[in-house]
Design goal:
- The protein is an alpha/beta fold.
- The protein has a single domain, classed as Rossmann fold, CATH 3.40.50.
- It is about 30% helix and about 20% strand.
């Protein structure tokens, strides 16, 4: 599974946590540059993880809307391994449930 990670300048231990959750590949956008507002979600992204404490608000809104239009599961998490793990395990509507152990669908 491939995830688009948006937010956080540095990922620290997050890649290891993603591997433990079945996410083998990821694309990382820091989410702080205004030029990202025009970026499109990569086609290979199976899910999106937004680190809301390290992202420009407008970019978060744009990504959220794109995810909704493309029906891509989206997780909103702090940039902390403990919070990310908790959010991934909460999945109840994710069509990738067996792989991601739970992400909230964007509503």
């Amino acid at each position: 599974m491939t995830a688009l990670l948006v937010g956080a300048d540095k990922l620290g231990n997050i890649p290891e946590t993603l591997r433990c959750q079945g996410i083998d590949h990821y694309v990382h956008w820091t989410g702080r540059k205004k030029k990202l507002r025009k970026s499109k979600i990569p086609k290979e992204a199976d899910m999106i993880i937004l680190f809301y404490d390290y992202i420009e608000h407008n970019i978060a809104s744009i990504i959220k809307e794109q995810a909704k239009q493309q029906n891509i599961p989206c997780v909103f998490s702090k940039r902390a391994v403990s919070d990310l793990t908790q959010q991934l395990e909460r999945c109840s509507q994710c069509n990738l449930k067996d792989l991601c152990h739970g992400t909230s669908m964007v509503s």
